Sequence to fold (74 residues):
Amino acid sequence: MFEKLKTILVNELSLNPDEITMSAELVKDLGINSLELADLVLLCEDEFGIEFDEDDIHKFITVGDVVEFLEAQA
Fold:
């Protein structure tokens, strides 16, 4: 799941793959803004066939948080 998410972050948001780790913070470390986070959610919904609740999105601090959510939904 991490590798799929990493691919999305690199290909769609043009992030440096070397900076993407499970502990990397989406905003602080990767510089993702609220619009990019919304894009990421939509991309993950399409890629993984799941829906995010708005409350879930606010819990995403690190890449690992997103991976754990995706794994729980799979």
In short: The mean pLDDT is 94. The chain has one domain: 2-73.
